[in-house]
Amino acid sequence: MYKKFLYLIPSLIFSNSIAQNSDFKNYTQKIGGSAQVYDMVAIPGGEFTMGSPKTEKGRREDEGPQHKVKLEPFWMGKFEVVWDIYDLYAFKNMEKEMALRHPDPDKSVAKTDASTRPSPPYVDMSFGMGRAGYPAINMTQYAAIHFCKWLYEKTGIFYRLPTEAEWEYACRAGSTTAYSFGNDASKIGEYAWYQKNSDASYKKIGLKKPNAWGLHDMHGNVMEWTLDQYIPDYYAKQPKGEAYAPVTELYPTAVRGGSWDDEPENIRSAARTASKPEWKILDPQLPKSEWWMTSASFVGFRLVRPLKTPSAEEIKAYFSPTLIEDY
To answer: Under the phi-then-psi rule, with left for phi > 0, alpha for psi from -120 to 50, and beta for the rest, what region is 2?
Structure first.
């Protein structure tokens, strides 16, 4: 039995006016009570063409028709979220232990004492492929959203998952080609871990070249959760001026970027992937875990922070997915 959720996203993501300010620049978010940090890159607002042309090699029908999207400025994580940070959220005792070793003047650990956390995984979710410095994997979209809530409670700064449009815009970094670095597939190995060069496992973050905006591993390594419901023909039937499909069902949701286990066509800037129930196939629990995707060692996530902070009511709604029904 699967659960059906509705996620409510704060407004002011898409706008006809593109704002900038003098404080809009790259910064490093410190994770209180630990030695961990998370680098954020300032992504300028603007308009871009979302989707791929019919002539692009490897293109699929769900990438069209191409359409214009205008976005407000936002920050995006320079890297995917790593286990070193995710484990502080997933394991309360670890967060407390680290706080004993590292000064926590803001008492951030106390702020997260009542945070909702994942159920304990029944196996090591890195599956022995590496942990320190490696992207966190195998979490559900639901778990990734609750990680954002934990980080908000800890720092007072609103972080969330990117929309599909924000993700593609940031990945392209001003490019209109199949990959952020152009159309020459022979250069993929310089920018991405994928099926040919990964040796069947994910790799530490930041080992490949970044795109033009300084973001690493947007192509390959691990796929990344977005906020959107995956709708194959959404580009064709989306409401005018909208570029976000709210989640109303558990499956499928939209994942971007391709992974260490993918062919070149699946790590293109416009390539879309739909989540599947089969990603939990190894989970022995009934019902299946809401927190872990035991067969998705190719899925992780990175964070976004909008330039315009939503209202307290909007933030509360975003972090409170509504259970609609079981099916």
So the answer is: beta
